[in-house]
Amino acid sequence: MSLEVRALACSRGQSTLFRDLSFRVDRGEWIAVRGPNGSGKTTLLRCVAGLTHVDAGSVARSGDFLYAGHLPAINDDLDAGENLRSLLALRGVEPTADALAGALDRVGLAKRRMLPARRLSAGQRRRIGLARLALDPAPIWILDEPLTALDADGEALFCALLGAHVRGGGLALVATHHDLAPAPTRELRMPAPERLGRGGA
Fold first, then answer.
1. For residue 49, what is the domain's CATH number?
2. pLDDT digit string (tens) for 111-120?
3. Are strands 56-62 and 15-26 parallel, antiparallel or unpaired?
4. How far apart (Å, rounded) are the C-alpha atoms in residues 125 and 80?
5. What's the 3-state SS for the chain?
6. Inside any domain, residue 123
7. Is residue 155 part of a domain?
């Protein structure tokens, strides 16, 4: 199982976000994608997940993957349990009622699982995504700023999930401004956007 990016290039309008970008992630590893706002971190993750067209290069994934964008992708009209079940269903994952309840309990939403998502705080909405990570068996994680809106306990919970994932042989590509434990296998630093342009270096 691996994730390999070869000579990837992507532009937005008249600006080149990145080019000739190559890296590989193997089982038991994770890469932290870092860089200033606008440097192409989100675009890179979307390219790797096959959601954004690339100008050049290729992405090879040998294994099923889970993608989570920087927005929580929550339906305000559904409760926490319904949102979690819907997120998992997108990938064909159908947990038992006990597994669903256990995951929500683990992320601190057991007493709020029946509330409409609109009544949850931003951090609680983000915790639904943590419960998704706990239940989805995908060996490859592609995550964009997963700590957004989480408090210290939520950040610790994410780190525990990430640690268990890589120790279990999974791999991850994570865009984050935070220092996480376990420490990344390596970092991928995106250049500042003003340093790149068509025909520029």
1. 3.40.50.300
2. 898 899 999 9
3. unpaired
4. 8
5. CEEEEEEEEEEECCEEEEEEEEEEEECCCEEEEECCCCCCHHHHHHHHCCCCCCCEEEEEEECCEEEECCCCCCCCCCEHHHHHHHHHHCCCCCCCHHHHHHHHHHCCCHHHCCCEHHHCCHHHHHHHHHHHHHHCCCCEEEEECCCCCCCHHHHHHHHHHHHHHHHCCCEEEEECCCCCCCCCCEEEECCCHHHCCCCCC
6. no
7. yes
The number of distinct structural domains making up the chain is: 1
Instruction: Report the pLDDT value the prediction gives residue 36, as an integer from 0 to 100.
Output: 86
Task: Flag whether the pTM goes above 0.85.
Answer: yes
Owning domain of residue 14? 2-63+139-195
Question: Model confidence over 26-80: pLDDT tens digits?
Answer: 999 999 999 988 889 999 999 999 999 999 999 999 989 999 998 888 999 999 9
Residue 17 lies in a domain: yes
